[in-house]
Amino acid sequence: MAPHFSMATANEAAAVVEICRRLDGIPLAIELAASRMASMTAIEVRDRLDQRFRLLVGARRGVERHQTLRHAVAWSYALLDEPERALLERCSVFAGGFDLEGARAVAGIQDQFAVLNLLDALVRKSLVVAHRSTGKTRFSMLETIRQFADEQLEASDDGEATRQAHARYFAEREPDVLALWDSSRQRDAYGWLVTELANLRTAFRWAAAHDHLDTAAAIAVYAGYLGGWIELHEPSTWAEELIGRARAVDHPRLGQLYVIAAECYRTGRLTDGVGYADAAVAILGTGHFDDMLFDIEPTALGGTYITVGFIDRWLALCRKRLACGEGMSAFNRGSMVMALATAGEFDEAKAASEELLDAADATDNPGAQAFALLAYGYVWRDANPTAAYEALRRGLMVAHDSGNRMIESYTAVNLSAFAAANRDPMDALDFLTLAIKNFFDTGSYSHMVSPLAVLASHLDRIGRYEAAATIVGFSFTAFALATFPEIDAAVAHLRQALGEDVYQSLTDAGGKMANADAARYALDQIDQARAE
Fold this sequence. Notes:
532 residues; Arc Repressor Mutant, subunit A; globular
Protein backbone atom coordinates (compact mmCIF):
# COMPACT_ATOMS: atom_id res chain seq x y z
CA MET A 1 0.00 0.00 0.00
CA ALA A 2 1.26 3.50 -0.82
CA PRO A 3 2.49 5.20 2.38
CA HIS A 4 0.56 8.39 1.68
CA PHE A 5 -2.74 6.62 1.00
CA SER A 6 -5.71 7.70 3.09
CA MET A 7 -9.39 6.82 3.29
CA ALA A 8 -10.19 9.97 5.22
CA THR A 9 -12.85 11.09 2.73
CA ALA A 10 -16.07 9.22 2.10
CA ASN A 11 -15.46 9.23 -1.65
CA GLU A 12 -12.04 7.57 -1.32
CA ALA A 13 -13.40 4.97 1.08
CA ALA A 14 -16.29 4.21 -1.27
CA ALA A 15 -13.85 3.89 -4.17
CA VAL A 16 -11.78 1.32 -2.27
CA VAL A 17 -14.89 -0.74 -1.52
CA GLU A 18 -15.91 -0.64 -5.17
CA ILE A 19 -12.41 -1.61 -6.32
CA CYS A 20 -12.49 -4.71 -4.11
CA ARG A 21 -15.96 -5.62 -5.32
CA ARG A 22 -15.21 -5.14 -9.00
CA LEU A 23 -11.99 -7.11 -8.69
CA ASP A 24 -14.05 -9.97 -7.30
CA GLY A 25 -11.98 -10.13 -4.11
CA ILE A 26 -9.03 -11.65 -6.02
CA PRO A 27 -5.98 -11.07 -3.75
CA LEU A 28 -3.48 -10.56 -6.58
CA ALA A 29 -5.75 -8.08 -8.34
CA ILE A 30 -6.34 -6.11 -5.14
CA GLU A 31 -2.61 -6.04 -4.35
CA LEU A 32 -1.80 -4.77 -7.83
CA ALA A 33 -4.50 -2.11 -7.50
CA ALA A 34 -3.02 -1.06 -4.16
CA SER A 35 0.42 -0.73 -5.73
CA ARG A 36 -1.03 1.66 -8.31
CA MET A 37 -1.96 4.02 -5.49
CA ALA A 38 1.65 5.08 -5.20
CA SER A 39 0.86 7.41 -8.09
CA MET A 40 -2.94 7.48 -8.29
CA THR A 41 -5.92 8.03 -6.03
CA ALA A 42 -8.39 5.25 -5.31
CA ILE A 43 -10.99 7.07 -7.38
CA GLU A 44 -8.63 7.23 -10.36
CA VAL A 45 -7.89 3.52 -10.06
CA ARG A 46 -11.59 2.67 -9.80
CA ASP A 47 -12.44 4.72 -12.89
CA ARG A 48 -9.94 2.72 -14.98
CA LEU A 49 -10.98 -0.79 -14.01
CA ASP A 50 -12.65 -1.34 -17.37
CA GLN A 51 -9.08 -1.63 -18.64
CA ARG A 52 -7.91 -3.70 -15.70
CA PHE A 53 -5.47 -5.87 -17.64
CA ARG A 54 -3.51 -2.81 -18.75
CA LEU A 55 -3.88 -1.07 -15.39
CA LEU A 56 -2.95 -3.87 -13.01
CA VAL A 57 0.64 -4.63 -13.92
CA GLY A 58 3.83 -4.56 -11.89
CA ALA A 59 5.95 -6.71 -9.61
CA ARG A 60 4.22 -8.52 -6.80
CA ARG A 61 6.27 -8.59 -3.58
CA GLY A 62 8.13 -11.87 -3.08
CA VAL A 63 6.59 -13.58 -6.11
CA GLU A 64 7.96 -13.45 -9.63
CA ARG A 65 5.53 -15.81 -11.34
CA HIS A 66 2.40 -13.67 -11.73
CA GLN A 67 3.59 -10.15 -12.30
CA THR A 68 0.34 -8.96 -13.88
CA LEU A 69 -3.31 -9.80 -13.50
CA ARG A 70 -3.35 -10.89 -17.13
CA HIS A 71 -0.61 -13.43 -16.49
CA ALA A 72 -2.52 -14.88 -13.55
CA VAL A 73 -5.74 -15.33 -15.53
CA ALA A 74 -3.89 -16.55 -18.62
CA TRP A 75 -2.25 -19.28 -16.54
CA SER A 76 -5.68 -20.65 -15.52
CA TYR A 77 -7.01 -20.21 -19.05
CA ALA A 78 -4.14 -22.23 -20.51
CA LEU A 79 -5.20 -25.24 -18.42
CA LEU A 80 -8.54 -25.50 -20.26
CA ASP A 81 -9.12 -27.77 -23.21
CA GLU A 82 -10.39 -26.25 -26.47
CA PRO A 83 -14.16 -26.86 -25.98
CA GLU A 84 -13.96 -25.36 -22.48
CA ARG A 85 -12.11 -22.31 -23.78
CA ALA A 86 -14.63 -21.85 -26.58
CA LEU A 87 -17.61 -21.97 -24.23
CA LEU A 88 -15.98 -19.64 -21.71
CA GLU A 89 -15.23 -17.13 -24.46
CA ARG A 90 -18.70 -17.26 -25.95
CA CYS A 91 -20.43 -16.96 -22.57
CA SER A 92 -18.45 -13.78 -21.94
CA VAL A 93 -21.05 -11.94 -24.05
CA PHE A 94 -23.62 -12.34 -21.28
CA ALA A 95 -24.10 -9.42 -18.92
CA GLY A 96 -25.34 -10.30 -15.45
CA GLY A 97 -25.30 -14.07 -15.85
CA PHE A 98 -26.92 -16.75 -17.99
CA ASP A 99 -28.72 -20.07 -17.85
CA LEU A 100 -28.23 -23.36 -19.66
CA GLU A 101 -30.45 -22.40 -22.59
CA GLY A 102 -28.58 -19.16 -23.10
CA ALA A 103 -25.24 -20.96 -23.03
CA ARG A 104 -26.50 -23.45 -25.63
CA ALA A 105 -27.64 -20.58 -27.85
CA VAL A 106 -24.32 -18.74 -27.94
CA ALA A 107 -22.30 -21.97 -28.11
CA GLY A 108 -24.32 -23.27 -31.04
CA ILE A 109 -24.56 -26.69 -29.37
CA GLN A 110 -27.95 -28.40 -29.32
CA ASP A 111 -26.95 -31.21 -26.95
CA GLN A 112 -27.78 -29.81 -23.52
CA PHE A 113 -25.76 -32.50 -21.75
CA ALA A 114 -22.65 -31.60 -23.71
CA VAL A 115 -23.04 -27.98 -22.59
CA LEU A 116 -23.78 -29.09 -19.03
CA ASN A 117 -20.58 -31.11 -18.94
CA LEU A 118 -18.55 -28.13 -20.13
CA LEU A 119 -20.20 -25.80 -17.62
CA ASP A 120 -19.59 -28.32 -14.86
CA ALA A 121 -15.90 -28.41 -15.74
CA LEU A 122 -15.67 -24.61 -15.74
CA VAL A 123 -17.44 -24.42 -12.38
CA ARG A 124 -15.05 -26.98 -10.89
CA LYS A 125 -12.12 -24.92 -12.16
CA SER A 126 -13.59 -21.77 -10.55
CA LEU A 127 -13.91 -19.94 -13.86
CA VAL A 128 -17.71 -20.00 -13.80
CA VAL A 129 -19.93 -19.65 -10.72
CA ALA A 130 -23.18 -21.62 -10.35
CA HIS A 131 -26.05 -20.01 -8.42
CA ARG A 132 -28.86 -22.30 -7.25
CA SER A 133 -30.87 -20.11 -4.87
CA THR A 134 -33.89 -19.62 -7.17
CA GLY A 135 -34.58 -23.30 -7.87
CA LYS A 136 -33.08 -22.96 -11.35
CA THR A 137 -29.33 -22.87 -11.81
CA ARG A 138 -27.91 -19.63 -13.14
CA PHE A 139 -24.29 -19.14 -14.08
CA SER A 140 -22.00 -16.14 -13.96
CA MET A 141 -18.33 -15.26 -14.28
CA LEU A 142 -16.18 -13.11 -12.08
CA GLU A 143 -15.82 -9.84 -13.95
CA THR A 144 -12.07 -10.26 -14.23
CA ILE A 145 -12.52 -13.65 -15.90
CA ARG A 146 -15.30 -12.32 -18.13
CA GLN A 147 -13.17 -9.45 -19.40
CA PHE A 148 -10.28 -11.77 -20.20
CA ALA A 149 -12.55 -14.23 -22.01
CA ASP A 150 -14.17 -11.36 -23.90
CA GLU A 151 -10.75 -10.20 -25.09
CA GLN A 152 -10.01 -13.71 -26.34
CA LEU A 153 -13.36 -13.81 -28.13
CA GLU A 154 -12.67 -10.50 -29.85
CA ALA A 155 -9.29 -11.78 -31.00
CA SER A 156 -10.92 -14.87 -32.55
CA ASP A 157 -13.15 -15.15 -35.60
CA ASP A 158 -16.21 -15.94 -33.48
CA GLY A 159 -16.91 -12.59 -31.84
CA GLU A 160 -19.42 -11.19 -34.33
CA ALA A 161 -21.35 -14.44 -34.71
CA THR A 162 -21.49 -14.99 -30.95
CA ARG A 163 -22.85 -11.51 -30.25
CA GLN A 164 -25.40 -11.95 -33.00
CA ALA A 165 -26.45 -15.29 -31.47
CA HIS A 166 -26.79 -13.60 -28.07
CA ALA A 167 -29.00 -10.84 -29.47
CA ARG A 168 -31.08 -13.27 -31.51
CA TYR A 169 -31.58 -15.54 -28.50
CA PHE A 170 -33.10 -12.73 -26.44
CA ALA A 171 -35.24 -11.52 -29.33
CA GLU A 172 -36.59 -15.03 -29.79
CA ARG A 173 -37.57 -15.30 -26.14
CA GLU A 174 -40.50 -12.97 -26.86
CA PRO A 175 -43.31 -15.54 -27.38
CA ASP A 176 -42.32 -17.65 -24.38
CA VAL A 177 -41.97 -14.71 -22.01
CA LEU A 178 -45.24 -13.13 -23.17
CA ALA A 179 -47.03 -16.47 -22.74
CA LEU A 180 -45.66 -16.60 -19.20
CA TRP A 181 -46.91 -13.05 -18.61
CA ASP A 182 -50.39 -13.97 -19.86
CA SER A 183 -50.78 -16.66 -17.22
CA SER A 184 -51.07 -17.18 -13.50
CA ARG A 185 -47.25 -17.10 -13.37
CA GLN A 186 -47.10 -13.47 -14.42
CA ARG A 187 -44.79 -12.53 -11.57
CA ASP A 188 -42.19 -14.92 -13.02
CA ALA A 189 -42.24 -12.96 -16.28
CA TYR A 190 -41.49 -9.75 -14.41
CA GLY A 191 -38.77 -11.51 -12.44
CA TRP A 192 -37.25 -12.74 -15.70
CA LEU A 193 -37.23 -9.19 -17.08
CA VAL A 194 -35.44 -7.80 -14.04
CA THR A 195 -32.95 -10.66 -13.98
CA GLU A 196 -32.17 -10.41 -17.68
CA LEU A 197 -32.31 -6.62 -18.02
CA ALA A 198 -28.54 -6.29 -18.44
CA ASN A 199 -28.55 -9.00 -21.11
CA LEU A 200 -31.52 -7.43 -22.88
CA ARG A 201 -29.74 -4.08 -22.83
CA THR A 202 -26.57 -5.60 -24.26
CA ALA A 203 -28.50 -7.52 -26.92
CA PHE A 204 -30.50 -4.46 -27.92
CA ARG A 205 -27.43 -2.23 -28.09
CA TRP A 206 -25.58 -4.69 -30.31
CA ALA A 207 -28.55 -5.24 -32.63
CA ALA A 208 -29.28 -1.53 -32.93
CA ALA A 209 -25.64 -0.69 -33.62
CA HIS A 210 -25.37 -3.36 -36.31
CA ASP A 211 -28.63 -2.56 -38.14
CA HIS A 212 -30.42 -5.73 -37.06
CA LEU A 213 -33.71 -3.83 -36.86
CA ASP A 214 -35.97 -6.88 -36.53
CA THR A 215 -33.97 -8.15 -33.56
CA ALA A 216 -33.70 -4.76 -31.87
CA ALA A 217 -37.41 -4.02 -32.35
CA ALA A 218 -38.49 -7.35 -30.89
CA ILE A 219 -36.42 -6.78 -27.76
CA ALA A 220 -37.56 -3.17 -27.36
CA VAL A 221 -41.24 -4.00 -27.79
CA TYR A 222 -41.63 -6.93 -25.43
CA ALA A 223 -39.19 -5.65 -22.81
CA GLY A 224 -40.87 -2.24 -22.95
CA TYR A 225 -44.29 -3.85 -22.68
CA LEU A 226 -43.35 -5.85 -19.58
CA GLY A 227 -41.46 -2.92 -18.10
CA GLY A 228 -44.50 -0.68 -18.27
CA TRP A 229 -46.44 -2.84 -15.84
CA ILE A 230 -43.69 -2.72 -13.23
CA GLU A 231 -42.72 0.89 -13.97
CA LEU A 232 -39.32 -0.03 -15.35
CA HIS A 233 -38.91 2.68 -17.94
CA GLU A 234 -35.55 2.01 -19.58
CA PRO A 235 -36.79 -0.40 -22.29
CA SER A 236 -39.32 2.18 -23.51
CA THR A 237 -36.40 4.43 -24.42
CA TRP A 238 -35.06 1.66 -26.64
CA ALA A 239 -38.29 1.72 -28.63
CA GLU A 240 -37.98 5.46 -29.02
CA GLU A 241 -34.45 5.10 -30.39
CA LEU A 242 -35.69 2.86 -33.20
CA ILE A 243 -38.64 4.91 -34.41
CA GLY A 244 -36.76 6.93 -37.02
CA ARG A 245 -35.30 3.84 -38.68
CA ALA A 246 -38.54 1.88 -38.40
CA ARG A 247 -40.53 4.74 -39.91
CA ALA A 248 -38.10 5.05 -42.82
CA VAL A 249 -38.81 1.47 -43.92
CA ASP A 250 -42.43 1.13 -42.71
CA HIS A 251 -41.30 -1.61 -40.36
CA PRO A 252 -44.16 -3.95 -39.31
CA ARG A 253 -43.53 -3.17 -35.64
CA LEU A 254 -43.71 0.61 -36.04
CA GLY A 255 -47.11 0.88 -34.34
CA GLN A 256 -45.90 -1.23 -31.43
CA LEU A 257 -42.79 0.92 -31.11
CA TYR A 258 -44.95 4.05 -30.98
CA VAL A 259 -47.08 2.58 -28.18
CA ILE A 260 -44.04 1.61 -26.11
CA ALA A 261 -42.30 4.95 -26.76
CA ALA A 262 -45.41 6.79 -25.55
CA GLU A 263 -44.53 5.56 -22.06
CA CYS A 264 -42.10 8.50 -21.89
CA TYR A 265 -45.02 10.60 -20.59
CA ARG A 266 -44.63 8.91 -17.21
CA THR A 267 -41.27 10.54 -16.61
CA GLY A 268 -42.65 13.96 -17.49
CA ARG A 269 -42.23 14.13 -21.28
CA LEU A 270 -45.90 14.76 -21.95
CA THR A 271 -45.70 16.35 -25.40
CA ASP A 272 -43.52 13.57 -26.79
CA GLY A 273 -45.75 10.94 -25.21
CA VAL A 274 -48.91 12.32 -26.81
CA GLY A 275 -47.15 12.59 -30.17
CA TYR A 276 -46.18 8.93 -30.08
CA ALA A 277 -49.67 7.94 -28.92
CA ASP A 278 -51.34 9.82 -31.77
CA ALA A 279 -48.92 8.27 -34.26
CA ALA A 280 -49.73 4.79 -32.94
CA VAL A 281 -53.49 5.34 -33.17
CA ALA A 282 -53.13 6.58 -36.75
CA ILE A 283 -51.52 3.39 -38.06
CA LEU A 284 -52.65 0.54 -35.80
CA GLY A 285 -55.60 -1.31 -37.25
CA THR A 286 -54.86 -0.20 -40.82
CA GLY A 287 -53.65 -3.66 -41.78
CA HIS A 288 -50.23 -2.37 -42.80
CA PHE A 289 -48.54 -2.89 -39.43
CA ASP A 290 -48.52 -5.51 -36.69
CA ASP A 291 -51.23 -5.17 -34.06
CA MET A 292 -50.24 -4.11 -30.57
CA LEU A 293 -49.42 -6.97 -28.22
CA PHE A 294 -52.69 -8.37 -26.87
CA ASP A 295 -54.57 -5.55 -28.71
CA ILE A 296 -54.02 -3.54 -25.57
CA GLU A 297 -53.44 -0.04 -26.96
CA PRO A 298 -56.58 1.45 -25.28
CA THR A 299 -55.07 0.51 -21.92
CA ALA A 300 -51.47 1.23 -22.86
CA LEU A 301 -52.22 4.70 -24.24
CA GLY A 302 -54.95 5.68 -21.79
CA GLY A 303 -52.51 7.03 -19.24
CA THR A 304 -50.80 9.15 -21.89
CA TYR A 305 -54.03 10.84 -22.90
CA ILE A 306 -55.57 11.29 -19.48
CA THR A 307 -52.40 12.84 -18.07
CA VAL A 308 -52.81 15.83 -20.37
CA GLY A 309 -56.61 15.91 -20.13
CA PHE A 310 -57.31 14.38 -23.57
CA ILE A 311 -60.09 12.19 -22.25
CA ASP A 312 -61.97 12.39 -25.55
CA ARG A 313 -59.06 10.76 -27.40
CA TRP A 314 -58.87 7.96 -24.85
CA LEU A 315 -62.60 7.31 -25.03
CA ALA A 316 -62.58 7.37 -28.84
CA LEU A 317 -59.74 4.83 -28.88
CA CYS A 318 -61.63 2.53 -26.50
CA ARG A 319 -64.81 2.75 -28.57
CA LYS A 320 -62.89 2.10 -31.79
CA ARG A 321 -61.21 -1.03 -30.46
CA LEU A 322 -64.31 -2.49 -28.82
CA ALA A 323 -66.56 -1.65 -31.77
CA CYS A 324 -64.42 -3.94 -33.92
CA GLY A 325 -65.25 -6.82 -31.61
CA GLU A 326 -61.56 -7.11 -30.86
CA GLY A 327 -59.55 -6.60 -27.74
CA MET A 328 -62.43 -7.53 -25.44
CA SER A 329 -60.01 -8.37 -22.66
CA ALA A 330 -60.48 -7.39 -19.04
CA PHE A 331 -57.85 -4.72 -19.66
CA ASN A 332 -59.73 -3.00 -22.46
CA ARG A 333 -63.12 -3.43 -20.81
CA GLY A 334 -61.67 -1.77 -17.73
CA SER A 335 -60.21 1.04 -19.83
CA MET A 336 -63.59 1.66 -21.46
CA VAL A 337 -65.27 1.89 -18.07
CA MET A 338 -62.69 4.30 -16.66
CA ALA A 339 -62.68 6.45 -19.79
CA LEU A 340 -66.47 6.75 -19.65
CA ALA A 341 -66.44 7.64 -15.95
CA THR A 342 -63.66 10.17 -16.38
CA ALA A 343 -65.60 11.75 -19.27
CA GLY A 344 -68.66 12.07 -17.01
CA GLU A 345 -70.66 9.34 -18.78
CA PHE A 346 -71.50 7.64 -15.49
CA ASP A 347 -74.63 5.74 -16.54
CA GLU A 348 -72.88 4.19 -19.52
CA ALA A 349 -69.82 3.50 -17.39
CA LYS A 350 -71.87 1.67 -14.76
CA ALA A 351 -73.65 -0.36 -17.41
CA ALA A 352 -70.35 -1.29 -19.02
CA SER A 353 -68.90 -2.25 -15.63
CA GLU A 354 -71.47 -4.98 -14.98
CA GLU A 355 -69.29 -7.60 -16.66
CA LEU A 356 -66.03 -6.52 -15.02
CA LEU A 357 -66.24 -8.72 -11.94
CA ASP A 358 -67.04 -11.75 -14.09
CA ALA A 359 -64.17 -10.84 -16.40
CA ALA A 360 -61.86 -10.61 -13.39
CA ASP A 361 -62.91 -14.06 -12.21
CA ALA A 362 -62.62 -15.60 -15.67
CA THR A 363 -59.05 -14.62 -16.47
CA ASP A 364 -55.84 -16.35 -15.42
CA ASN A 365 -53.94 -13.11 -15.99
CA PRO A 366 -53.45 -11.43 -12.58
CA GLY A 367 -52.79 -8.04 -14.12
CA ALA A 368 -56.02 -8.17 -16.09
CA GLN A 369 -57.88 -9.25 -12.96
CA ALA A 370 -56.43 -6.43 -10.86
CA PHE A 371 -57.09 -3.87 -13.59
CA ALA A 372 -60.73 -4.93 -13.94
CA LEU A 373 -61.18 -4.63 -10.17
CA LEU A 374 -59.55 -1.20 -10.24
CA ALA A 375 -61.94 -0.03 -12.95
CA TYR A 376 -64.95 -1.41 -11.08
CA GLY A 377 -63.92 0.33 -7.87
CA TYR A 378 -63.25 3.57 -9.71
CA VAL A 379 -66.67 3.79 -11.36
CA TRP A 380 -68.69 2.71 -8.29
CA ARG A 381 -66.82 4.73 -5.66
CA ASP A 382 -69.70 7.19 -5.20
CA ALA A 383 -72.77 5.09 -6.03
CA ASN A 384 -71.77 1.95 -4.10
CA PRO A 385 -68.72 2.71 -1.95
CA THR A 386 -68.83 -0.56 -0.05
CA ALA A 387 -68.69 -2.73 -3.17
CA ALA A 388 -66.13 -0.41 -4.71
CA TYR A 389 -63.89 -0.54 -1.66
CA GLU A 390 -64.04 -4.34 -1.54
CA ALA A 391 -63.12 -4.58 -5.22
CA LEU A 392 -60.20 -2.20 -4.76
CA ARG A 393 -58.86 -4.06 -1.71
CA ARG A 394 -59.05 -7.32 -3.60
CA GLY A 395 -57.38 -5.74 -6.62
CA LEU A 396 -54.59 -4.31 -4.48
CA MET A 397 -53.80 -7.76 -3.10
CA VAL A 398 -53.79 -9.34 -6.57
CA ALA A 399 -51.58 -6.59 -7.99
CA HIS A 400 -49.13 -6.79 -5.11
CA ASP A 401 -48.89 -10.59 -5.15
CA SER A 402 -48.35 -10.70 -8.92
CA GLY A 403 -45.76 -7.91 -9.02
CA ASN A 404 -47.93 -5.46 -10.99
CA ARG A 405 -46.46 -2.33 -9.47
CA MET A 406 -48.25 0.13 -11.75
CA ILE A 407 -51.71 -1.25 -11.01
CA GLU A 408 -50.84 -1.55 -7.32
CA SER A 409 -49.92 2.14 -7.23
CA TYR A 410 -53.09 3.28 -9.04
CA THR A 411 -55.25 1.12 -6.79
CA ALA A 412 -53.57 2.48 -3.66
CA VAL A 413 -54.36 6.04 -4.75
CA ASN A 414 -58.03 5.15 -5.21
CA LEU A 415 -58.13 3.41 -1.84
CA SER A 416 -56.53 6.41 -0.18
CA ALA A 417 -59.35 8.64 -1.40
CA PHE A 418 -61.89 6.18 0.01
CA ALA A 419 -60.18 5.78 3.35
CA ALA A 420 -59.70 9.51 3.83
CA ALA A 421 -63.36 10.27 3.25
CA ASN A 422 -65.14 7.25 4.69
CA ARG A 423 -62.85 5.09 6.79
CA ASP A 424 -59.70 5.11 8.93
CA PRO A 425 -57.53 8.16 8.10
CA MET A 426 -54.45 6.12 9.00
CA ASP A 427 -55.30 3.72 6.19
CA ALA A 428 -55.43 6.67 3.83
CA LEU A 429 -51.95 7.74 4.87
CA ASP A 430 -50.61 4.20 4.42
CA PHE A 431 -52.03 3.96 0.90
CA LEU A 432 -50.70 7.39 0.00
CA THR A 433 -47.24 6.51 1.28
CA LEU A 434 -47.22 3.36 -0.86
CA ALA A 435 -48.27 5.20 -4.00
CA ILE A 436 -45.96 8.20 -3.55
CA LYS A 437 -42.93 6.01 -2.90
CA ASN A 438 -43.73 3.70 -5.82
CA PHE A 439 -44.15 6.55 -8.28
CA PHE A 440 -41.13 8.50 -7.08
CA ASP A 441 -38.79 5.53 -6.79
CA THR A 442 -39.55 4.47 -10.37
CA GLY A 443 -39.42 7.97 -11.84
CA SER A 444 -43.14 8.01 -12.73
CA TYR A 445 -43.39 11.69 -11.91
CA SER A 446 -46.45 12.40 -14.06
CA HIS A 447 -48.43 9.93 -11.97
CA MET A 448 -47.07 11.10 -8.63
CA VAL A 449 -49.37 14.12 -8.78
CA SER A 450 -52.43 11.94 -8.12
CA PRO A 451 -51.51 10.71 -4.61
CA LEU A 452 -50.18 14.18 -3.81
CA ALA A 453 -53.46 15.76 -4.86
CA VAL A 454 -55.43 13.26 -2.77
CA LEU A 455 -53.09 14.02 0.14
CA ALA A 456 -53.77 17.74 -0.28
CA SER A 457 -57.50 17.05 -0.09
CA HIS A 458 -56.99 14.96 3.04
CA LEU A 459 -54.82 17.61 4.71
CA ASP A 460 -57.49 20.20 3.96
CA ARG A 461 -60.06 17.94 5.59
CA ILE A 462 -58.06 17.67 8.83
CA GLY A 463 -57.22 21.36 9.01
CA ARG A 464 -53.62 21.40 7.78
CA TYR A 465 -54.37 24.14 5.30
CA GLU A 466 -50.89 25.54 4.64
CA ALA A 467 -49.41 22.13 3.87
CA ALA A 468 -52.42 21.30 1.70
CA ALA A 469 -52.05 24.48 -0.34
CA THR A 470 -48.32 23.91 -0.81
CA ILE A 471 -48.94 20.41 -2.19
CA VAL A 472 -51.74 21.71 -4.41
CA GLY A 473 -49.21 23.99 -6.06
CA PHE A 474 -47.24 20.97 -7.24
CA SER A 475 -50.04 18.52 -7.94
CA PHE A 476 -53.05 20.41 -9.30
CA THR A 477 -52.80 19.16 -12.88
CA ALA A 478 -55.19 18.02 -15.59
CA PHE A 479 -54.43 14.42 -14.65
CA ALA A 480 -55.20 14.87 -10.95
CA LEU A 481 -58.37 16.83 -11.63
CA ALA A 482 -59.60 14.36 -14.25
CA THR A 483 -59.15 11.31 -12.03
CA PHE A 484 -60.17 12.87 -8.71
CA PRO A 485 -62.49 15.82 -9.48
CA GLU A 486 -63.37 16.17 -5.79
CA ILE A 487 -60.01 17.87 -5.36
CA ASP A 488 -61.53 20.96 -6.96
CA ALA A 489 -63.73 21.39 -3.87
CA ALA A 490 -60.69 21.21 -1.59
CA VAL A 491 -58.98 23.94 -3.62
CA ALA A 492 -62.04 26.19 -3.32
CA HIS A 493 -62.12 25.64 0.44
CA LEU A 494 -58.40 26.36 0.82
CA ARG A 495 -58.79 29.67 -1.03
CA GLN A 496 -61.53 30.63 1.38
CA ALA A 497 -59.78 29.40 4.52
CA LEU A 498 -56.39 30.94 3.80
CA GLY A 499 -57.31 33.99 1.81
CA GLU A 500 -56.28 34.48 -1.80
CA ASP A 501 -52.89 36.08 -1.08
CA VAL A 502 -51.70 33.41 1.35
CA TYR A 503 -53.10 30.62 -0.82
CA GLN A 504 -51.34 31.98 -3.90
CA SER A 505 -48.04 32.37 -2.07
CA LEU A 506 -48.15 28.78 -0.81
CA THR A 507 -49.16 27.27 -4.15
CA ASP A 508 -46.43 29.26 -5.88
CA ALA A 509 -43.90 27.74 -3.49
CA GLY A 510 -45.24 24.25 -4.15
CA GLY A 511 -45.21 24.79 -7.89
CA LYS A 512 -41.48 25.53 -7.78
CA MET A 513 -40.64 22.27 -6.03
CA ALA A 514 -38.59 19.64 -7.81
CA ASN A 515 -40.01 16.11 -7.87
CA ALA A 516 -37.73 14.94 -5.06
CA ASP A 517 -38.58 17.96 -2.91
CA ALA A 518 -42.31 17.46 -3.42
CA ALA A 519 -42.12 13.76 -2.53
CA ARG A 520 -40.01 14.48 0.54
CA TYR A 521 -42.34 17.26 1.69
CA ALA A 522 -45.43 15.09 1.20
CA LEU A 523 -43.99 12.15 3.12
CA ASP A 524 -42.94 14.50 5.92
CA GLN A 525 -46.49 15.85 6.12
CA ILE A 526 -47.81 12.29 6.28
CA ASP A 527 -45.49 11.55 9.20
CA GLN A 528 -46.66 14.68 11.01
CA ALA A 529 -50.31 13.80 10.40
CA ARG A 530 -49.74 10.32 11.80
CA ALA A 531 -48.18 11.77 14.94
CA GLU A 532 -51.13 14.04 15.73
